[in-house]
Amino acid sequence: MPTDVVSAAPLTPIAPARPWHIGLIGFGCVGQGLYDILQQHPASGFVVARIVVKNPAKARTLPAERFEFDADALLVDDSLDVLVELIDDANAAFALVAAALLRGRRVVTANKAMLARHLPALVALQRAHGGTLLYEAAVCGSIPIIRTLDAYFGTEPLRRLTGILNGSSNYVLTRMGEGGTDYGPALAQAQQLGFAETDPSLDMGAFDPRSKAVLLAAHAYGLFLDPEQVLNLGIEGISATDIAFAASRGQKIKVVAGLQRLPDGRVTALVTPQLVGPESPLFGVDEEFNGVVLEADFAGEQFLRGRGAGGHPTGSAVLADLAALRQGFAYHYAKTAAPPTHATDLEIEIYLRTDEPRLIDLLDFSEVSEEADEDGYVVGYVALAHLIAHRDLLREYGAFIMRTGQLRPIGEAATPVLETASGRV
Ligand SMILES: NC(=O)c1ccc[n+]([C@@H]2O[C@H](COP(=O)([O-])OP(=O)(O)OC[C@H]3O[C@@H](n4cnc5c(N)ncnc54)[C@H](OP(=O)(O)O)[C@@H]3O)[C@@H](O)[C@H]2O)c1
Question: In this structure, which of 83, 91, 153, 163 has its CB flanked by the most CB atoms within 10 Å?
């Protein structure tokens, strides 16, 4: 060894970081999924220290002594580095998450219904008390869309975001489109395979993807919306006639959440069944998969596809949030500093099929381009506000409505549409 080389002092080995202790609230599909991932991946640096569930009588996959029943006890346990809220009760979840943030704690949740209703309050609590809340798992399961919007596109303006955000309805539509199966049997199959809940109304009525659209609007545009403000039309009334209508045009029916910036800077948000053609990346998002297309001003178009639900895919997103928390990450909500206005004073082209002619009168079409009496459908423009106001009645009467075209200003028949891209969904 040359003598002029100063031999370095032996490096002090870096002590492995202490594993973070998780207080897990909820041990159902996602809670168990996360637990299983951490068991299979002990090097992740997280251990589940305490688990709280609700029902003391339920049979468990772990020894009984692993479970406790008072979630409030976890909120005050300062030995826990992070609380992971994975329960199925939105009201109880809000009480827990709000109380944890009030104490300045780190929290991860997957509860989209709770978040969509209370996001502004939860953001305010974080800002006031220094806690951090992450919720990647709440939208599209394993697809990292919230962090992509918040961190990567936090500054760049977005023209549009379109997505298939609900795997259950997508599975039903896939079965109907490919197998000629009717809605009832397709839904039963989805339930049998665990892709749809016993009570399917939140998924099939597009309430679930509406909650997700509300969360996406906050991160994509800085717009805090009340879920009620977002039009949600479901697929409970769909029939083979509608599938045949789409197929005759070489298209598929998908439930699509569409967030879009208008030329005047305002933003629209709606979740509806929609005709999707092969030119759209969403055309190939079938079965129980989710997909999101982003159109950014400078980056152009990006497409993410993946599993939107299930213990492991959703647990994977929770693990990603835990790792992000450990690195000090928090959402920036950068675009909320100058939020756009929400626009509903527009017309939208729809296909309406109903055996109740009064619904057609009620919607007051400003322009009709196609009518088929034998199949009971009409295609034309209606005011978005009419659809929002009458959505419950339309659902009650079993009408099926899908978006067939673009948005346009009210009363401007045959004027150029408000779309900024090629007209794809
Ligand atoms: N399943 C998915 O694929 C998926 C995907 C994305 C997001 N999410 C969201 O993740 C959350 C959990 O969903 P999940 O499917 O895992 O639900 P789940 O299978 O129904 O399990 C819910 C768990 O929460 C517990 N729980 C309910 N109320 C409680 C309370 N007040 N205190 C303590 N524990 C309570 C239940 O306890 P018991 O075991 O005693 O009944 C159960 O362990 C929901 O917000 C859901 O929307 C789910």
Answer: 163
Q: Which residue has the tokens 């088929």?
A: 372
CA of 170 relative to ligand 1 center, distance in Å = 22
Residue 374, Cα to own-chain centre: how many angstroms?
A: 37
Q: Which of 271, 243, 249 is nearest to 258 (CA)?
A: 271
Kindly state if the Cβ of 75 falls inside 6 Å of ligand 1.
Answer: no
Question: Quick one: tokens of 35?
Answer: 């637990």
Q: How far does the centroid of ligand 1 lie from the alpha carbon of residue 167, in Å? A: 18
Among the listed residues 353, 361, 360, the one whose alpha carbon sits nearest the alpha carbon of residue 245: 353
pLDDT in tens, the chain (425 residues): 444 445 556 666 555 589 999 999 999 999 999 999 999 999 999 999 999 999 999 999 999 999 999 999 999 999 999 999 999 999 999 999 999 999 999 999 999 999 999 999 999 999 999 999 999 999 999 999 999 999 999 999 999 999 999 999 999 999 999 978 999 999 999 999 888 887 899 999 999 999 999 999 999 999 999 999 999 999 999 999 999 999 999 999 999 999 999 999 999 999 999 999 999 999 999 999 999 999 999 999 999 999 999 999 999 999 999 999 999 999 999 999 999 999 999 999 999 999 999 999 999 999 999 999 888 999 999 999 999 999 999 999 999 999 999 899 997 765 544 443 334 44
Tokens 């259950």 appear where? 168
R_g (Cα) of the chain, nearest Å? 24
Ligand 1 atom nearest the C-alpha of 29 is 16
Listed by start position, the domains of the chain span 20-134, 145-343, 344-420
Establish whether residue 25 lines the binding site of ligand 1, counting it when its CB lies within 6 angstroms of any ligand atom.
yes
Domain 145-343: which CATH number of 3.30.1360.30, 3.60.21.10, 2.40.30.10, 3.30.360.10: 3.30.360.10
State how far the Cα of 145 lies from the Cα of 162, in Å rounded to an integer. Answer: 12
Selection from 160, 346, 344 nearest residue 256 by Cα: 160
Partnered with residue 260 across adjacent β-strands are: 160, 268
390 CB within 6 A, ligand 1: no
Q: Which of 421, 20, 395 is nearest to 237 (CA)?
A: 395
The set of residues, in sequence order, having a beta carbon less than 8 Å from that of 355 and lying 6+ positions away, is 376
Phi, psi of 314 (to 5 degrees): -75, -40
Residue 342, beta-bridge partner list: 267
Per CATH, the number for 20-134 is: 3.40.50.720
Architecture of domain 344-420 in this structure: 2-Layer Sandwich (3.30)
Count Cβ atoms below 10 Å from residue 140 Cβ, excluding itself.
32
